[in-house]
Amino acid sequence: MTTPSMNTVLEAVEMRVLPPDPAVMAAIGLSHTLNTAVADLIDNSLDATANRIVVRFMLRKGRPSSLLIIDNGFGMSEQAIDAAMTVGRRHHYDGSSLGHYGMGLKAASFSQAESLTVIARDQFDKTHHTAGRRWSRQGVQNFECEVLESSQCAEQLDLALESVDSKFGTMVRWDNVRTFPSGTNEDVVNEYLSRTVDSLRFHLGFVMHRLIKKRNMQISIDVYDADTGTAGAPRIVDAVDPFAYRRSGDGRYPMRFSVEVGPAAITATAHLWPARSQALEFRLDEDPVQRQGFYFYRNDRLLEAGGWKNIFTNGRRTQLARVELDIDTLPEVFDMNMEKSSVQPRPEFGHAVERAVSESGVSFSNYLNESEAVFRTGNVRSRKREAVVRPGSGFSPAVKRAIEEEYEDSAPRPPVQVRWKSISTGEFFEVDRAEQTLWLNERYRKILSTGRRSGMNDAPLLKASLYLLMEEVFRGSAFGSKAKDNVEIWQAILTDAAEDELARSSS
C-alpha cells in the first residue's frame, strides 16, 4: 500500500464546462473611480484616432443627470458597435493600442452608472448610417442589449459632434451615475462640479500627458444645461508631466539604466527633481514623498505613478527620485490590472533593478543616495522664516499645502478664512478680525472665477495673493494704525481694479 503524500500528482478523470453566473457582472469594475473610468473610455477614443474629445456633465433641473464622452474618431459600424458592447468578447489589439482586455467600456461604465449608451457613425461607411446600443445594469446581467432607433441616434449624435467639429465619431453616455449629487441644492451641486471637474482635469492631464503632447490632441471638460441648451466654458486638459523640471537637481541626470530581465532588457530613465520645487508637476495631487519611485508607461499612457514595488523603501529624503519605465516591450514581466491604474512586476524585475548599473557606473543604490544628498543640500535655509497664521476654509488644498511647506511655523492665532458675501458699501473686501475672516464682495465673484463655476475653494490665485498681502493683518493681537492705513490703500486700489474688470467683462 502506497503511503499518502502531499506531493502526489492528482489525476483528472473528466472535463466540465462551468459557465459564469450572470450576476458576476455586478462585480465588474469595482476598483474604478470616476477619474479612472473616464480615462479608460478615452483610451478607446484614442485607439479610434480621435484628436478632439469632450467630457460633458449634463444638468437637468439643476442637478447632474448624465455624463457624455464625445470624440471625433473614426466611429463604429453596426458590427463594430455590437462587438464593443459584447461582454467577454476578446478584441484584436495591435501593439500600439491602449485597449487590452476588451472589457474597458463595460467595466468602466458600470462601475459608475446604471445605464450605458453608445452611439456611433463610421467614417468609412458611405451610407453615413448611425448605430446605437444601450445596456442597462440589469440588462447586461441577462446579456440583453437594446438596439436603438437609428434616426433618433443620428439627431443626438449630430448635436454632440458639434462640440468636436466633426460629422463622424462616437458618443458614450452614462445615465444614473451613482456618485452624482441626488439633490438640487445649488451650493452642493456647484461644489461637487468644481471639485470633480478639477480632479478629472488633473487626472487626465497626468495619465495622458505624453499623448497630449505627441498627438497634439485636445481634451476638454464642460457642463451642459440641457434645460436651456447651453454649455459652460470648456476647461482644457493640460498635460501634467511629472518629469517637466526646468533644471535637474543634479547635472548628471537624467541617467539611463539598462535593466536586464533574462535575455531581454528594459531602459529605466532615472531623474532627480531640484529640491524645494513648488511646481504642480512635482507636487502633483498629494504628498511628493508618495510620488517618488517608478512611473510605468504602456504605449505612452501612464499606468502607475510612484512607489518602489518593495524593491526600495519610500523615504522623505528620496522624494526627488523618479524613474521612467516603458513596459510595452516586456508584457510578460508586468501584469496590468483591468482598470489600467496599477502594474505588478514579476519578482525577476526587482532582482534586475538591484543589479542595474548605468553606463557611467552608477548603481541604483548610488542613485538613491545621490537623491538624498540633493534633498539635504537644497533644504538648508539661510534664515528661519517667521511664523504665520495658517490659511483655513475657503482656500484650496493646493494653496494650503504650498503655504504650509514654505512657512513651517504657525502663529498662535486661529486660521484665516476667506468667504464671499454681498457688501453693501460696494467695497472689494471686508476685514473681520473677530471671526478671522476676509470677506470678498459677491458682486465680483463671477468675473474673478474666470468663467468657472463657483465653489468654496474657487479663485485660488486671487485668494493666495490676498493671503500674502493681508496675513499680517490677522496675525497681530491689535489692529494698529499702520495696518489700518494699509487696508485702506489696498481697499481703494482693489475696488477700482475690480470695477474696471467688471466694466470690461460687460462691454
List keywords for this structure.
Heat Shock Protein 90, single chain, about 500 residues, about 20% strand, alpha+beta, 5-stranded mixed β-sheet, 9-stranded mixed β-sheet, about 30% helix
Outline the structure in words.
With 507 residues, this protein is α+β, with helices and mostly antiparallel strands. It is 31% helix and 22% strand. It folds into 3 domains: 22-236, 2-Layer Sandwich (Heat Shock Protein 90); 255-378, no CATH class; 397-506, no CATH class. It contains 14 helices and 19 strands. Strands 1, 2, 3, 4, 5, 6, 7, 8 and 9 form a 9-stranded mixed beta sheet that branches. Strand 1 and strand 2 form a beta hairpin. The chain is globular.
Describe the structure concisely for a colleague:
This protein is an alpha+beta fold and 507 residues long. The protein is built from 14 helices and 19 strands. Strands 1, 2, 3, 4, 5, 6, 7, 8 and 9 form a nine-stranded mixed beta sheet that branches. Strands 10-11-14-12-13 form a five-stranded mixed beta sheet, with helices on both faces.
